[in-house]
């Protein structure tokens, strides 16, 4: 099957099969404050992704490009949404544009449509430092995402089977590209061991890309007869993953930014991600679903609603800014608590 066809199938399946799972946010509870001593109008949503200051703690995570006019159209709409709501947008993996010039316009449309916004380029960890730099240049990107997707490759018969040397390549990318590097998972999460490795090579931003949202195992398995169904429930739930990575980077105290993603659907998920230690949260599948099923205007409205709801939650916990929300007391319950207890993370 051609790469372009696979990309279009991913989009189709992401709207159906690929959106089930438990990211663990129901296990997180805020402690209500009856005297929050803050006004809704005082709430500031501004935050930092590395050194990039952004006005709201959400971004549209990597999805597409490289599938001809179809993915170009989706990227154009996603970029319009990002420009309107003033939130960062990540490109889908640009590796196909590195291999094939004719695929570039489907990515470049993001920067064309959103000339002044924050844009993230995207490559896989198989990229060389030169390829990564070319992807940053292609979008005049403000940061570069490097995705880790071992399970997604394993479930595809034509996928990669060689994963040695990725950390070494990422280290070269970090030292070569002129923008901050975000290392991200794609729905399987990262644990403290992975965070420690990324820390050791100076990765400044980690996007946990946890389990509980888009599920590439289910997407890939549903497309073929022979299926590795044991990977359908594989991964570290997003809430757990943020807590694991936060424990590791706080311990090493290197000022690493954590981004929460994987199954982010509501303002409550974003607030809980921040309270667990993230600076911002990424949404991929949910934004795609809104866009495909309800259209561009409604997706913009929904994102504005999410930001307004976030202000309400912050007011209820007495947090006037993102830093204060990160310190808001939370209660951990259920499987999330069991997981973190077993891993000795408090
Ligand atoms: C993705 N994702 C993704 N990630 C990446 O780094 N490069 C890519 O090219 C893609 N492609 C892609 C296509 C489609 C259709 C979807 C839905 C997702 C993964 C994405 O950025 C994110 O990490 C996961 O989808 C988990 O977040 P959600 O979807 O649960 O919010």
UniProtKB/TrEMBL annotation:
Q: Which EC class heads this enzyme's classification?
A: isomerase
Q: What is its main location?
A: cytoplasm
Annotated GO MF terms: isopentenyl-diphosphate delta-isomerase activity
Q: Which residues bind substrate?
A: 6-7, 152
Residues that bind Mg(2+), according to the entry? Answer: 153
Q: Which reaction does it catalyse?
A: isopentenyl diphosphate = dimethylallyl diphosphate
Enzyme Commission identifier(s): 5.3.3.2
Domain FMN-dependent dehydrogenase intervals = 167-328
Question: Where is FMN annotated to bind?
Answer: 62-64, 93, 122, 184, 214, 263-265, 284-285
Q: Which domain of life is it from?
A: Bacteria
Where, per UniProt, does this protein localize?
A: Cytoplasm
Which keywords accompany this UniProt record? Cytoplasm, Flavoprotein, FMN, Isomerase, Isoprene biosynthesis, Magnesium, Metal-binding, NADP
Q: Which cofactor does it need?
A: Mg(2+); FMN; NADPH
Task: Quote the PANTHER family the UniProt record gives.
Answer: ISOPENTENYL-DIPHOSPHATE DELTA-ISOMERASE
What is the annotated quaternary arrangement, including any partners? Homooctamer. Dimer of tetramers.
Q: Which family does it belong to?
A: Belongs to the IPP isomerase type 2 family.
Protein task: Involved in the biosynthesis of isoprenoids. Catalyzes the 1,3-allylic rearrangement of the homoallylic substrate isopentenyl (IPP) to its allylic isomer, dimethylallyl diphosphate (DMAPP).
- Name assigned to this protein: Isopentenyl-diphosphate delta-isomerase
Per the UniProt record, the source organism is Evansella alkalicola
User: What's the name of its gene?
Assistant: fni
